[in-house]
Amino acid sequence: MDQAKTHNSIRKITMLGLLAAICTVLRIVKIPIPNVQPVTDIIMIVTLFCGFKTGMTLAILTMLVSNLYLGFGLWTFPQIAAYIICVLTVWLVQKFLFLQKSWLFQLVIATFLGLEYGLVISLCMAVIGQAPAFIAYYTSGFLFDVYHAAGNLVFYPLIYLPLSKILQNYLTE
C-alpha cells in the first residue's frame, strides 16, 4: 500500500474515532429532556458530507461504544437498525433530491429522522414480540420520538455550520 493511501486511511479512522467518541459522550450525557441529543443530527451531517458508508459506520460505532456504558440488550440491534435506516434515508434523499442544496429541507429531514428512528425501533421490537409489542412500544414511546424530533430541530441549526466546515476541511485536505 502506498504512503498516500495509508495516510488517508489513518485520517479517516481518526475522524471516525473522534466523531464516534463525541457522539458517544453526547449520548451518555443526559439533558433533562429524554431523547434530546444531537447524535442523529451529527450522523445526518456526516452522511451528507462523507457518504453512506461513513455515516453507517459512525452510527454503528456510536451505538456499540455508547452501549458499552449504557448496557446491551434486546434494544441494541433495533437501535443499530434504526440508525442504519436513518442513514439510508438521508443518503437516498440526498441522492435523488439533492438535499445538500436546501438547508430548510435538511431541517425537515433532521426532524423527521427523530420520528423515523422511533418507528423503526418499534417495528424491530415487533419482530421479537409480534404486533402487540409494536403497538405497545410505539404508543408508549411516541412522546419520546417527538422529543427526539424536536431536539433534532433545535440542534441541527446549532451544529450544522461548525460541523460542515470541519468536514469540508477534512475532505479537501
Structure, described:
By secondary structure, the protein is mainly α. The chain has a single domain, classed as Arp2/3 complex 21 kDa subunit ARPC3 (Orthogonal Bundle). It is built from 5 helices and no strands. Helix 2 packs across helix 4, helix 3 runs antiparallel to helix 4 and helix 4 packs across helix 5. The radius of gyration is 16 Å and the shape is globular. The two termini are 20 Å apart.
Key features?
5 helices, 86% helix, globular, 173 residues
Note the topology.
Elements: H1 3-28, H2 39-50, H3 52-70, H4 76-97, H5 103-172
Helix pairs in contact: 1-3, 2-3, 2-4, 2-5, 3-4, 4-5
Specify the overall morphology.
globular
Give the radius of gyration.
16 Å
Oligomer: single chain
CATH class: Mainly Alpha
- Main sheet specs: none
Category from helices, strands and their pairing: mainly alpha
N- to C-terminal distance: 20 Å
Share of residues in strands: under 5%
Output the CATH topology: Arp2/3 complex 21 kDa subunit ARPC3
Low-confidence region ranges: none
Beta strand count: 0
**Whole-number mean pLDDT:** 91
CATH-defined architecture: Orthogonal Bundle
Summary of the model, kept short:
This protein is mostly helical and 173 residues long. The protein is built from 5 helices and no strands. The chain starts with a helix and ends with a helix.
